[in-house]
Design goal:
Order of helices and strands: EEEEHEEEHEHEEHEEEEHEEHEEH
Largest sheet: 10 strands, mixed
CATH superfamily of the largest domain: ATPase, nucleotide binding domain
Helix content: 25-40%
Strand content: 25-35%
CATH architecture of the largest domain: 2-Layer Sandwich
Number of helices: 7
Structural class: alpha+beta
Strand order of the largest sheet: 3-2-1-8-10-9-5-6-4-7
Length: 338
């Protein structure tokens, strides 16, 4: 059993090879404390717990805005909620066939924001998953571990998504001679990394806190001022980025023009200048600039994004899953080579 899992700040994405084939799954990385849970027979909630910590996880947590817990420090990958999110992805993928029976993955590839890389953090992540994680869902025990664990820069997954097949083979050797850039517009961070052939190269500041949440925060400021919005959780505004209306006091309000204005301003003032500054000397000879992460969907709303470089821009299918898909293919390559 092999898996590629991207536990990002905004969503959890996974590709897992099980007896039923390769399974894709994902959900919002939102956790809420199960406080004041009355009439449980009406809630139909699953409670995830680990080492005494208890959470509602994913979409159901959005219903409990006052109980949402934030885990957004750079070392969130070492905290218990991270491992609950990883375990839920394996459960959702159907890895556990019998309650109480532990699973051990042959190969697991995880990601971390390249700007948050620390040798000690990576070592602790690997040690914990190799030792094994024990968690509970509604008092049912789930244990998982992995034989081989690798932790890659999150944006590197999109490069391997381009470079490798699902079987872990290089799709075309000519790509190993080209220079690639990866622009990963995630929930919290925007990451800028590059590969020269199959060599990873980067600068001293590959991550910035300019992800999709920055757009949502500005949108929250607008609806708070314009409509006296009381809800301060930006997660509820995410559907507006895909053209959904703003629900307010029984009305459906079209905010698409305001959303486009905020998105354009953010990309032209933050994302594009950051890209050009980092890659100024090599931008013209890059074969492709792979744009991944949930923010990739917003590119079409930006007027003249990277004008003159349009042929280099490549947005993969389901770009928010590109890193997880690439992690899986990297794991498949390692399995094949070993």
């Amino acid at each position: 059993m092999i898996a590629g899992v991207d536990v990002g700040y905004g969503r959890v994405k996974a590709y897992v090879k099980t007896d039923d084939g390769v399974i894709k799954c994902g959900y919002p990385r939102v956790l809420a404390e199960p406080r004041n849970m009355y009439w449980k027979e009406l809630n139909r909630l699953h409670i995830y717990s680990i080492e005494g910590e208890r959470y509602i996880v994913g979409d159901p947590a959005l219903s409990f805005s006052g109980n949402i817990i934030r885990h957004e420090s750079q070392d969130y990958v070492l905290e218990n909620p991270y491992w609950i999110c990883l375990g839920k992805a394996l459960i959702d993928a159907g890895c556990f066939h019998h309650e109480g029976n532990p699973i051990r993955l042959n190969s697991l590839v995880l990601g971390i924001a390249p700007g948050h890389y620390q040798d000690d953090t990576i070592k602790k992540m690997k040690t914990r998953i190799r030792r094994g994680v024990e968690m509970y869902v509604d008092n049912r025990e789930y244990r998982f571990s992995a034989e081989s664990v690798q932790v890659l820069p999150q944006a590197a997954g999109a490069f391997f998504d381009w470079m490798l097949s699902d079987e872990g083979s290089i799709r075309d050797l000519k790509y190993t001679k080209y220079l690639f850039g990866v622009l990963d517009i995630g929930y919290r961070t925007t990451d800028y990394i590059s590969f020269d052939g199959d060599r990873f190269v980067t600068d001293d500041s590959p991550s910035e806190d300019t992800g999709v949440r920055s757009v949502l925060s500005r949108l929250l400021e607008y609806v708070t001022k314009r409509y006296d919005c009381k809800d301060k959780n930006v997660e509820y505004l995410e559907p507006l980025l895909s053209g959904k209306p703003y629900l307010y006091r029984g009305d459906k309000i079209d905010l698409s023009s305001e959303v486009k204005k905020i998105v354009n301003d953010h990309f032209k003032r933050r994302i594009e200048p950051g890209l050009k500054k980092r890659w100024e000397s090599v931008l013209d000879r890059m074969h492709k600039i792979i744009v991944c992460g949930g923010g990739a969907y917003l590119i079409n709303s930006v007027n003249g994004f990277m004008k003159g470089h349009e042929k280099q821009i490549f947005i993969p299918d389901a770009p928010e899953y590109s890193n997880a898909r690439g992690f899986y293919r990297f794991a498949a390559m390692n399995e094949k080579n070993n």
